[in-house]
Amino acid sequence: MPALPIARMEEKAAEVADFLMAAANRNRLMVLCHLAEAGELTVNELAGLVRLSQPALSQHLARMAEEGLITARADGRRRFYALSQGPVSDLLAVLQKHFCPPDDTRAAAE
């Protein structure tokens, strides 16, 4: 694979750092994991799962939507959120493989 020119590599490094900073928050990771598992959830469903107030959750959702980590669709008065396809879904698959494998017996012991 040919090396990127240094200026392009710096651009990409900044882009990746922004992407990782948007995901690198315990509450946002929990939201992303729930969306990866469920496919699509409403704000109320997410608030119950991550134990955040709706205003706090809405701030996290806005940040993740702005960064392209999640998508939103409206159905009447309800908004449904889903994990974006691409880098964020690929990243979550890797994180799940290494940190939350289905056969993880540590969770049963806690």
From TrEMBL:
PROSITE patterns: HTH_ARSR_2. Keywords: DNA-binding, Transcription, Transcription regulation. Residues 8-103 form the HTH arsR-type domain. Transmembrane segments: none annotated. GO terms for molecular function: DNA binding; DNA-binding transcription factor activity. It holds the Pfam family HTH_5. SMART domains: HTH_ARSR. It comes from the Bacteria. InterPro entries: ArsR-like_HTH, HTH_ArsR_DNA-bd_dom, HTH_MetalResp_TranReg, WH-like_DNA-bd_sf, WH_DNA-bd_sf. PANTHER family: HTH-TYPE TRANSCRIPTIONAL REGULATOR YGAV-RELATED, TRANSCRIPTIONAL REGULATOR, ARSR FAMILY. This is Metalloregulator ArsR/SmtB family transcription factor. It comes from Nisaea acidiphila. The lineage of its organism: Bacteria, Pseudomonadati, Pseudomonadota, Alphaproteobacteria, Rhodospirillales.
